[in-house]
Specification:
The protein has 3 helices and 3 strands, in the order E-H-H-E-E-H. Helix 1 packs across helix 2. A 3-stranded antiparallel sheet has the order 1-3-2. The N and C termini lie far apart (about 30 Å). By secondary structure, it is an alpha+beta fold.
Length: about 55
Amino acid sequence: MSNWHSSKAVADRLGISIRSVRRLVDRGELRKAKIGGLVKIHEEDVAAFEARIRQS
């Protein structure tokens, strides 16, 4: 499970709110998976998003 992160962990890592993470998911900028009823975001998706915002 270490490759999967909670919305809160992603928000902390990106320095944004959990609500902003949810917006990114809704817009398709981050993909989510439901694991055991919890929303999780894969490490690859977070890293790819970070790379995209660094290039902007």
